[in-house]
Specification:
It comes from Arcanobacterium phocae. The protein has nine helices and no strands. By secondary structure, it is an all-alpha fold. The N and C termini lie far apart (59 Å). The chain has two domains: 55 residues, Homeodomain-like (Arc Repressor Mutant, subunit A); 142 residues, Tetracycline Repressor, domain 2, CATH 1.10.357. 75% of the residues lie in helices and 0% in strands. It is globular, with a radius of gyration of 19 Å.
Length: 204
């Protein structure tokens, strides 16, 4: 292993430790404000300076797993063959995202922090990775529009929203079924979601 590779591996290990420490502390406290950056640094066994060498804010750390999770989903959609339908591209991307995720429980806790704690925190409400988030969304919309072969912004937004919502429901299932293997719980939620959508079992 080269020196450059070793340094990058060490940097990734440190970043992972910071993320896990932050999410563990905030989840236990059920509060973002009651956990300081110094608390996170101490838990991760690093200095405050090292924390800021890896992450600009506390919110960025807490939402990092969720950002990576959704980024991988979008990458799967973009990399899918253009010969398949938009619906199939979304469904396959969701399935691959679940299958490829190393720690669904960590992502599920990150999503819980976003939906349950961020709104009540005094931390800045700015979205971490905002420019990347917007670029990802734009790339997804363009790709889905090309697959749909129609200039209907509502159709594009609806399909984009379905993918995001199914991914979120998979994480909810992970949290609510702690007696199950996280991947199994997520996959079952995904399967059920798409079955409901395919059968239109809503009385519409």
């Amino acid at each position: 292993m080269s020196e450059c590779t070793r340094r990058e591996s060490k940097r990734q290990e440190t970043a992972d430790s910071i993320v896990r420490s932050a999410i563990a502390l905030v989840t236990k406290a059920e509060s973002i404000d009651s956990v300081s950056i110094d608390d996170i640094a101490q838990e991760a066994g690093i200095s405050r300076r090292t924390f800021f060498n890896h992450f600009p804010t506390k919110i960025t750390v807490l939402l990092e797993p969720l950002f990576v999770y959704r980024s991988r989903y979008i990458a799967h959609v973009l990399n899918a063959s253009m010969s398949i339908t938009a619906w199939r591209a979304v469904a396959q991307a969701v399935a691959k995202t679940i299958a490829d995720c190393d720690d669904l429980d960590l992502v599920a806790r990150s999503e819980w922090i976003l939906t349950r704690l961020v709104h009540s925190s005094s931390a800045p409400a700015d979205i971490p990775h905002r420019s990347a988030y917007e670029a990802h969304n734009n790339a997804l919309r363009i790709n889905l529009q090309q697959r749909l072969n129609q200039d209907d912004p509502i159709a594009v937004e609806l399909l984009s929203g379905i993918g995001d919502q199914v991914l979120r429901l998979a994480l909810v299932a992970v949290r609510e079924n702690d007696n199950k293997d996280p991947r199994q719980a997520a996959q079952e939620a995904v399967t059920h979601s798409f079955e409901l959508l395919a059968t239109n079992n809503f009385g519409l």
